[in-house]
Amino acid sequence: MxxxxxxxxxxxxxxxxxxxxxxxxxxxxxxxxxxxxxxWHRETGERVSGERELEDEExxxxxxxxYEDPPPAALISTEELVLWSFYRAIIAEFVATLLFLYICVxxxxxxxxxxxxxxxxxxxxxxxxxxxxxILVYCTAGISGGHINPAVTFGLxxxxxxxxxxxxxxxxxxxxxxxxxxxxVKAFQHSKYLGAGGGANVVNxxxxxxTGLAAEIIGTFVLVYTVFSATxxxxxxxxxxxxxxxxxxxxxAVFMVHLATIPITGTGINPARSLGAAVIYDHKQSWDDHWIxxxxxFLGAALAAAxxxxxxxxxxxxxxxxxRSQSSI
Length: 329
Known about the structure:
Layout lengths: L8 E6 L20 E7 L10 E4 L5 E4 L19 H30 L7 H20 L9 H9 L5 H25 L1 H6 L13 H22 L2 H6 L3 H4 L1 H19 L5 H11 L2 H5 L3 H21 L2 H6 L9
Antiparallel strand pairs: 1-2, 2-3, 3-4
Helix pairs in contact: 1-2, 1-4, 2-9, 3-4, 3-6, 3-12, 4-10, 6-9, 6-12
């Protein structure tokens, strides 16, 4: 026994297991020349690493997941169409998007109509959008996943997190909810709403359409990338507090993107938000560049999904056996 040694972790080698179907002390399916190693904290006794490892006789280690990736969603699933939970999720997306647009467009109207020394300004608008996303994602995450944005739904569909029918119904519910939310603002503040331009997204005349499109692509990439990172099953398995805090970074992503892109496009990054304002305001100005607020967010979402799934998670390359991911996240 060595005394006085100061170490922070101990390696515990599991040489036997109580369940065995081979009579050699190892669980079924294990190779006899491998041993399972776990890393434990010296003082707390808690496992430190996010993964377990298999080590062969030559010292080569292979990561062994201590979490399960959810299976890819079926492309077209008819089973969920008869479940109440499916329609409950659609209702949740509708109501959440309605509330999101009502609060945020009302904030925009208030800022535009405020005196030069009053109102909350662009910073307040950014906080309204980011804060509402934080609140609504927190409220609906356990029901619908808290998408509240067709671009987010599209990105998750590309990553096989949701089925095609669910994605289509979500997007329809989000768009309808956005139209209803902006409609409430117009009903309650008709003259001020019209004076504020309906809160519609347009490309600032001082910027080109290409710049506006790029702003929407990059802004949506930031948002959808944050969604993937905050909900990654590997991170959730390692840190139990992550699922609870996931709405916070998502809301902050929306906040930061608004700070950067309000002067350029008024910040879309959400096709339902742009559609709702355009439909209710219904002026030529709101339709001129409307395509930007669909093409940009969908391209940004697709890029974020590809980056997370096939670069950071490296599923394609690991399946091909070309290299082993060394990420600890």
